[in-house]
Amino acid sequence: MAAKILDGKAIAQKVRDEVREGVARFAAAHGRPPGLEVVLVGEDPASVTHTRSKERVSNEVGIRGRLRALPAGTTEAELLALIAELNADDAVDGILVQLPLPEHLREHAVLDAIAPAKDVDGLHPVNAGLLALGRPGGLAPCTPVGCMRLLAEAGVELAGARAVVVGRSHLVGRPMAQLLLAQHATVAIAHSRTRDLRAICREADVLVAAAGKAKLIGGDWIKEGATVIDVGMNRDDAGKLVGDVDFEAARERAAWITPVPGGVGPMTIASLLEATLRAAEARVAKQRP
Ligand code: NAP
């Protein structure tokens, strides 16, 4: 039987509607909307597109979203000075620095400079640490948070389920595994050195593919009745956007599957908006006497 499609577009719309309501309540209570600053260094075409849509969509839900586009030659000192300014600005609740940065800028130095309370992409060591320790109150990376929402919307039982995450990046794989663990799944993390990836994937009740390799995961790697979340965004030989999973073959075995495009992608920005609202609420709650 063909899998049910986990429709990221529709679920992202639902998240945006929830955020719009929350933003209106926040603005009415505090006299200002939540503020999100998106920082872009350079003119990488994909990054320009991503940051513009983050600015546009945040404004559509009532967040004051602003894109700070800096020239490719911006020095680390200049970038750190801007981050310090945004950290100190009370009207700014969220700061997102678009990755990848140009090579002359050290990613960790820049990410570490963002105030953890404003780190809406959850990449500061404080937030990554809270997630790893299973402690509440931190901010987690937007893409895995979006994947968790997809799983929740599908009603997938995670407690006791075998979950396999393919990929161990700080942006997707690792935080995804931590979020699944927090929901009591039994989690394996696979990566480029993993032996017999196929056998490991075949055990997964929940399979999250985040390797960035077109159609790495074949249909016969999927356990019957599994839930498949495909984070990968790759171009095939014809230039078409494809995931890490062979969708047509996998959908014959899975119970739920995300399409590419229209699965995880739309959830990432929706989760960023949600994180900005949460960060704003947490900051004002902390400022209350
Ligand atoms: P990344 O930093 O390149 O990490 C890729 C991970 O996959 C690494 O841990 C790597 O292992 C592992 N890997 C690579 N080839 C593998 C193989 N053949 N078998 C098993 N593991 C393999 O990428 P990322 O930032 O996590 O992104 C992953 C994918 O998700 C990309 O396609 C990206 O475009 C997409 N993405 C989509 C969204 C969205 O909103 N939809 C957001 C973020 C990323 P090693 O650690 O051993 O090198």
Structure description:
The chain is of the alpha/beta class and 289 residues long. The chain has two domains: 31-115, 3-Layer(aba) Sandwich (Rossmann fold), CATH 3.40.50; 142-265, NAD(P)-binding Rossmann-like Domain (Rossmann fold, 3-Layer(aba) Sandwich), CATH 3.40.50. The chain has helices at residues 8-30, 45-60, 76-88, 107-113, 125-133, 142-154, 173-182, 197-201, 247-250, 264-287, and strands at 4-5, 35-41, 64-70, 94-97, 162-166, 186-190, 206-209, 227-230, 234-235, 241-242, 256-257. The protein has a six-stranded parallel beta sheet. Helix 1 runs parallel beside helix 10, helix 6 (142-154) crosses helix 7 (173-182) and helix 6 (142-154) packs across helix 10. The model has no long low-confidence stretch (mean pLDDT 97).
Give structural attributes:
single chain; 289 residues; alpha/beta; Rossmann fold; 2 domains; six-stranded parallel β-sheet; 10 helices; 43% helix; binds NADP nicotinamide-adenine-dinucleotide phosphate
* Biggest sheet character: 6 strands, parallel
Mean pLDDT: 97
Sheet with the most strands: spatial strand order:
1-11-8-7-5-6
Helix content: 40-55%
Reading off the top of the CATH hierarchy, the class of the largest domain is best stated as Alpha Beta
User: Number of DSSP helices?
Assistant: 10
Radius of gyration: 19 Å
* Global shape: globular
CATH fold title of the largest domain: Rossmann fold
Number of strands: 11
Q: Termini, distance in Å?
A: 58 Å
Uncertain residue ranges = none
Give me the secondary-structure category.
alpha/beta
Which compounds are bound in this model?
Answer: NADP nicotinamide-adenine-dinucleotide phosphate
